[in-house]
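User: Predict the complex with MTE.
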Amino acid sequence: MLIRRPADIAPSEITPRELYRARRDFMARSGRLALAGAAGLALPWTSADAAVLANVQPNRMALSDKPTRQKDVTSYNNYYEFGVDKDEPAKNAGTLKTRPWTVTIDGLCNKPRRYAIEDLLKFAPLEERLYRMRCVEGWSMVIPWVGFPLSALLRAVEPQGSAKFVEFTTLLDEKTMPGVKYPILDWPYTEGLRMDEALHPLTILAVGLYGEELLPQNGAPIRLVVPWKYGFKNAKSIVHIRLTEKMPGTAWNKAAANEYGFYSNVNPNVDHPRWSQETERRIGELTKRKTLLFNGYDEVAGLYAGMDLKKNF
Ligand code: MTE
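Assistant: Here is the predicted structure with MTE placed in the model:
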């Protein structure tokens, strides 16, 4: 088991996180966020929103893994709406307009609702979660996300018994997203989870990382984070969450069903048809690592008991 309680972690391992936490506290105290807003910089969080961020609970799911440099997390991205090269989202996604922003939750639930992003920021206490992330392409990162459990939001809309899946639809805006004029995917980008996966405590909606609000290239203002699945399951810039009875179609599955399954659990024993998934390159490291089943999150294994993971890849 790779997840350790904070008490098990040597101080030397905690240092990078403590450093950025101290930096964040300093920024909050010095009112940098409010000042930047006044200067017209792209920081849509109001000072009231920023205060929510300053109260983020310490990481309760600590890893011994060293966080990937913030610079890499925010400059090496997949966000095809803004270009297919890793450096393009950071260059192009500045056009993403994250206010006003609403997320509609509907489908098979008793209390469908449209939430303003400001309400979602205060929806449940924000927590910091240091998660391993593994991209299907063979690279990985360790990211300190800020977010809240998706289950809190789903429970608020009261899912009906017939709701078996959750579909996520992300923003499609031809005016600001240069990538969507290319038919690489069936836009808008959509993803899906089975209800028990969506309700699992590891599954979060992230609104920030490294103690700061999400940048557009990372899926501002709100994105999914499911750490035991390949990166593409983590839909960015979500506008619609729908509870369904049938398994929803997903963008990558529609594009290449033989390569990208619905489940897409990290699994070193199931090769991608064009490459092995046995190892990964953690961004910032030279030697490759062995990829772990469920990305090392052994506690989710029970969700798939009795399932053939080679068929349900
Ligand atoms: N969400 C949208 N809307 N569009 C995308 O192209 N790419 C996915 C996922 N979410 C993608 C998306 C892929 S392939 C990965 S690996 C992760 O976002 C990358 O997230 P990161 O750039 O924050 O690391």
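Residues 77-81, 135, 170, 189, 218-219, 231-232, 234-237 surround MTE (CB under 6 Å).
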